[in-house]
Design brief:
12 helices, alpha/beta, binds S-adenosylmethionine, about 325 residues, 2 domains, 4-stranded antiparallel β-sheet, 12 strands
């Protein structure tokens, strides 16, 4: 099981911001935020003041952080020689993806976040100021949409975490293309791991393949996506819940599992380690061996590694989302 916890300094900074906000309504606001996102309403309509921001930080950010961190890990495994210096975080909200990228890539020197929510950007600024990492501390935090970034130079790493869900359908392709033109290295887009989230990822995948991008993750190649409805390609990551997180969610279990879908594209000069397949579901451990559901260049296949197989020991360490 993939596991991703917030860095302690981000966790502590969130605690402080959340405790400075009105406490009585935290759980109600967190529930309203979840319902709104589940119903396809965007942050604009949902996050209006400091209390709503606190609810997002307490109840939602740890999960989006975990999903982005897990996706970045998959990218790093495929592109081990990639050391980005500049990052563009589109739809940064409170800076979730920037924090995950700063953790995954200490090589980052400059971070640019932009978003159209004044309330979330205020939190992004307050959180970034607490960071020991100079790239985060000096991050450029800009209010606006992609149009406000018209003349910017390309960035080595471009991230969009849980943003495409909030864009009008007519803007999805052009936004993906625009982010690709702003990317000189790797572009990673992460969405909720729902059938609708995956359909957006599939559309982005097809759009960027037509622009000449190479798939860095999760797909083993550029073949036609073999996933057929009602199945959808998604992964899961487990994250710890702090006491504040549990209170905001009215939860009594100290962890949760976040489902996510993602795709990462690399420019031609980025060397990618070849992979044969991606594990698409939790491996099924049986008496004779382990059965894997794999996405391969030949389509979806079930493969069983028996206990007598020389690959068995390695197979016992493989999990949903890993490459093979
Ligand atoms: C669900 S939040 C995700 C925030 C953050 N990336 C994360 O993973 O926690 C979606 C963010 O996208 C921003 N957003 C939506 N449409 C946008 C647009 N057209 N331009 C800039 N930001 C946008 C919202 O304001 C919000 O902060």
């Amino acid at each position: 099981m993939t596991f991703a916890a917030l860095p302690p300094e981000l966790r502590d900074a969130i605690e402080q911001l959340v405790h400075a906000a009105p406490q009585q309504s935290l759980a109600a606001r967190a529930a309203r935020t979840s319902d709104a996102y589940r119903d396809g309403r965007g942050s604009d309509a949902t996050i209006r003041d400091a209390g709503d921001v606190a609810a997002y930080l307490a109840a939602r950010l740890p999960a989006t952080y975990a999903a982005i961190a897990a996706s970045l890990n998959a990218v790093a495994a495929r592109a081990p020689g990639f050391f980005p210096q500049s990052l563009l975080d589109f739809g940064s909200g409170p800076g979730t993806a920037s924090w995950a990228a700063a953790q995954a890539y200490p090589s980052l020197h400059t971070i640019t976040m932009f978003d159209r929510s004044t309330a979330l950007l205020k939190a992004a600024k307050e959180l970034a100021q607490t960071a020991g990492n100079p790239a985060l501390q000096n991050a450029q935090i800009m209010n606006g949409g992609l149009a406000s970034h018209e003349t910017a130079a390309a960035h080595d790493l471009v991230l969009a975490g849980y943003v495409f869900a909030e864009l009008p359908e007519a803007e999805l392709k052009q936004t993906a293309k625009r982010l690709w033109t702003l990317c000189s290295g790797i572009l990673l887009i992460v969405e909720p791991g729902t059938p609708a989230g995956f359909e957006r990822i599939r559309m982005i995948r097809e759009t960027l393949l037509s622009q000449g991008g190479s798939i860095a993750a999760p797909c083993p190649g550029a073949c036609v996506c073999p996933i057929a409805s009602p199945d959808w390609c998604h992964f899961t990551v487990r994250l710890p819940r702090s006491r504040t997180h549990m209170r905001a969610k009215g939860a009594d279990v100290p962890f949760e599992d976040e489902k996510f879908s993602y795709v990462a594209f690399a420019r031609e000069h980025i060397a990618l380690q070849p992979i044969q397949a991606r594990i698409l579901a939790r491996p099924h451990v049986m008496k004779p061996g382990i059965r894997f559901k794999l996405c391969t260049a030949e389509g979806i296949v079930d493969r069983t590694i028996t206990k007598r197989d020389t690959a068995y020991k390695t197979a016992t360490r493989k999990d949903w989302g890993d490459d093979v």
